[in-house]
Structure formats: structure tokens, C-alpha cells
């Protein structure tokens, strides 16, 4: 497995993994709720690559993208420039293979190098595998956003989790 920063030419494969991850019903968007266009997503990758406190990491197996981790920070001098927000997704065919663990380990090294002190994410409270991964990687639940999302006719709580480096 190779973990690296995404380039514009990775857009189509990353979009495919995002769409697959959204089918899990543990993502902010559900299946088919948004349209991801290759050209638009290529620009998104280029913009992220131009922000020193943001990155889009991909996990590749045999040159196929199987997971992604987006970290978005603020490189402007401000009171929040030390923190970054994370979104992660793993293709359903590759879950349980330590891909998330590898992405988060890569993130830790990158964040320390960039001077990011605080990493943040939200996760549906019923995503037990996700919560277990994040806790294993040092994230702690800081709060619960009650009835934060409405999925398949029911309200779902979200945990706000963070890790200090």
C-alpha cells in the first residue's frame, strides 16, 4: 500500500471511492445526494495542494485508489491556524485492512511537520468502526451533537472528536 498526496489526475478514482463511501450511510452525504464532476474535483485537489495547511491523501493498492483522507486547515495567520478538520473514506471492498490506520499515521507525520496542533472530525455515533479507529489513533470525544443528522427517517447523533499533537 502506498499513501501519497493526490494529484489532479487522481480525481476520477478519488470520486469513485467517495461515492462508494457515501453508500455506507455514515458520511455527511448519502448515496447520490451530490454530483461530483471530475473537472470540478480536479480544481479542488489543486486548491488543496496550494494550501500549506491542507492536503488530500490517498491510499493506493496496485495503482488503484482505495481510500482518502482530506485535511483542511487555515494557513493564514489567525487564532485557528493551528487546527485542521478531517474527512476520511475507505472503499467498502478494502475496509478492515488497516488502510484508515495508515492514512491517520501519515496524517500525524504531516501535521507535525506543518505545525498543526489540533485535528478535528465528526462521526456518526452509530459508526462504531469509525469511532474505534479514531480512538485507536488518539482522538477523544469532546461532545455530542444530538440529532445532528437525519438519515433514513431517523435522527442520528454525531460525536465531535479531536486529537492534540
From TrEMBL:
GO terms for molecular function: acyltransferase activity, transferring groups other than amino-acyl groups. The keyword Transferase applies. Pfam families: Acetyltransf_1. Residues 1-165 form the N-acetyltransferase domain. InterPro entries: AcTrfase_GNAT_prd, Acyl_CoA_acyltransferase, GNAT_dom. It comes from the Bacteria. PROSITE patterns: GNAT (PS51186). The keyword Transferase applies. SUPFAM superfamilies: Acyl-CoA N-acyltransferases (Nat) (SSF55729). Keywords: Transferase. This is GCN5 family acetyltransferase.
Amino acid at each position: 500500500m502506498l499513501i501519497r498526496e493526490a494529484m489532479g489526475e487522481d480525481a476520477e478514482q478519488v470520486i469513485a471511492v467517495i461515492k462508494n463511501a457515501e453508500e455506507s450511510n455514515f458520511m455527511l452525504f448519502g448515496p447520490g445526494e451530490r454530483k461530483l464532476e471530475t473537472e470540478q474535483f480536479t480544481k479542488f485537489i489543486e486548491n488543496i495542494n496550494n494550501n500549506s495547511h491542507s492536503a488530500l491523501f490517498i491510499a493506493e493498492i496496485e495503482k488503484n485508489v482505495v481510500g482518502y483522507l482530506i485535511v483542511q486547515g487555515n494557513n493564514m495567520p489567525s487564532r485557528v491556524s493551528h487546527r485542521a478538520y478531517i474527512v476520511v473514506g475507505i472503499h467498502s471492498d478494502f475496509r478492515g485492512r488497516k488502510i484508515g490506520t495508515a492514512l491517520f499515521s501519515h496524517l500525524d507525520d504531516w501535521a507535525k511537520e506543518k505545525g498543526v496542533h489540533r485535528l478535528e472530525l465528526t462521526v456518526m455515533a452509530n459508526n462504531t468502526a469509525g469511532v474505534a479507529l479514531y480512538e485507536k489513533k488518539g482522538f477523544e470525544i469532546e461532545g455530542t451533537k444530538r440529532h445532528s443528522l437525519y438519515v433514513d427517517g431517523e435522527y442520528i447523533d454525531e460525536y465531535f472528536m479531536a486529537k492534540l499533537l
